[in-house]
Amino acid sequence: MLMVFLSRPYSITPKRPLFIGILANTMLSTVPGLSGAGPNPMGSLLVPVLDAELIWQGIITSTDATPNTPTGCPTPASITRAVLDRIGVSPLFINAGLVHRPTVPVLDLLGQAGGDPRDGPAVPDAERLYKEGVRIGKLLSAHDLLVVGECVPGGTTTALCVLRSLGYDAKVSSASVTSPDSMKEEIYAAVTRRIGRSIPDPMDIIRETGDPMMAVAAGLADGFPGTLILAGGTQMLAVAAIIKALGNPLPEVVTTVYVRDDHAASCDKTAQDIGVPITYVDPGFGEIGHSGLVRYCIGEVKEGMGCGGAMMLAALLGYSPEEITRSIISFVSGYSP
Amino acid sequence: MLMVFLSRPYSITPKRPLFIGILANTMLSTVPGLSGAGPNPMGSLLVPVLDAELIWQGIITSTDATPNTPTGCPTPASITRAVLDRIGVSPLFINAGLVHRPTVPVLDLLGQAGGDPRDGPAVPDAERLYKEGVRIGKLLSAHDLLVVGECVPGGTTTALCVLRSLGYDAKVSSASVTSPDSMKEEIYAAVTRRIGRSIPDPMDIIRETGDPMMAVAAGLADGFPGTLILAGGTQMLAVAAIIKALGNPLPEVVTTVYVRDDHAASCDKTAQDIGVPITYVDPGFGEIGHSGLVRYCIGEVKEGMGCGGAMMLAALLGYSPEEITRSIISFVSGYSP
């Protein structure tokens, strides 16, 4: 196979890596039609809890949900679960602000779920969450590498608002084949009517129109002394943009080729505009003969719950592309055709 | 000063240590007269939350409580706070089962508060908590040393029940100058009337008459590959006894000389009976001229929230006894005469 698994050459071998999954809600995910996560708008709020449950346990037990989209496409949490289990890495979940209580072990930062930024400040305790993130980042300094994923349904819209407020002419990706771009633009327009187009302080931008994950991820990057890789698409580019605006050293970003190839989004251009190094993982889902996973190639799901970062971590630890994709096929075949 | 700070010679210098505080409740702390923690029996349930708040923030903000006993003796959490702050180590708190929600970042294992073992099984999900402890222990394997403290008001009585059920002729310590020994014996007698004197499986013993902290601490010891030191008095000896009964390698124990010198308890003898190495820390509170701390020497408080372990960790990291006690005096002088 001539497939290039990682888009950039990498020579580091992490000795003591940790995979983090930051869980949060934004009430934007309950706006009908905006988020592709969950069975329906209110159900989207439960997705971070179910994703964490799947990754920690290998199975969802608190509801009868299957980790597939309605079209039979395995969720990104399935990929993260399969890969982390294969490489023997237990994730550390962080609750940055959720509506529902998690069902598996989670480091609780006592944040509130993010509000609808059209109605008022979305993350009133952004500063506190950032500072807790800094402390947790220091606390984790025994690790040489942090791979930081996220699960925030509706989070590409907060990412759009944050990137635009920071001055980037960005377009964000989505978990849907057809991104509800005009809805996202309408929400950003409504936000600007409330807060204006330009806010100088990046912490104020998170507070007004971000989500709790962003504050925690930016804090982790500030406090952690080793290598930190933000694992996600345009949502993590928003975090990278915040980190830059704060004047802190830029981390790296990793996502999948499916986000890069989303022509409705500006992933690679925005990464360049920010100046953040970005790596694309290509697990070759088009050629592995799985009717669900192949849907990633037509633009469904694309990324989430740090699945690109989990695959990259496996590669850095010496697992071959074949081993990695085999572990994914094996896991998702347990519940999907 | 000729004081011997650590009772055993130590040559290890931890490179990547972590201090853990396991928080839990047992409903036994609400039995009037049994626990010396908190302002009153029901108030004892809040103590782990306030202790964690003090250690994380340096100040209690959610109530107007001062971290002193009614006689003006600084709580052990004050000592832990002072020392960890001095040596720059952030603690990781674990919620093993609490009545009240913590107010600072805590890794939530979704446990229930321990029940009264006279009425029924005290920790119905002991097995699950143990297994989560094992996973967290593995997750923390980047560290070379874990110092594991606890805060479980009423926990010396569950320790008595567990040690006796495991066949040890033990007497436990307490946070009071005069331990309510006869009450503890009456509770153990009532427990034996319910479950009998001999239960072969140590996990069943935790379930019937232990507390949630014990299950998690024993699991951590099983999962963590490095050096693990249980920081506490007779409560941690109960954990060590469980670990031995499970057939797992024994950790070490550290506590203060004030527990060793408690003639109502059998600390050193029970450690020998178990065969667990135990280190006693002597911070010399009798000679430092603080009217509150000197009360440790007459048997008040004695130990708690891993304060002996925090002081030992500081010594292992190269801090002198003078630096360590000076940091404690400085901190407690901020709120107490």
From TrEMBL, chains A, B:
- Gene Ontology molecular function: any one: nicotinate-nucleotide-dimethylbenzimidazole phosphoribosyltransferase activity
SUPFAM superfamilies of this UniProt entry? Nicotinate mononucleotide:5,6-dimethylbenzimidazole phosphoribosyltransferase (CobT)
> Entry's InterPro entries?
Nict_dMeBzImd_PRibTrfase, Nict_dMeBzImd_PRibTrfase_arc, Nict_dMeBzImd_PRibTrfase_sf
Give the protein name, as stated in the record: UPF0284 protein Mhun_1589
Highest taxon above the source species: Archaea
What family is reported? Belongs to the UPF0284 family.
Annotated PANTHER family: PTHR38811, UPF0284 PROTEIN SLL1500
Q: State which residue ranges cross the membrane.
A: none
List, alphabetically, the CDD domains matched: DMB-PRT_CobT
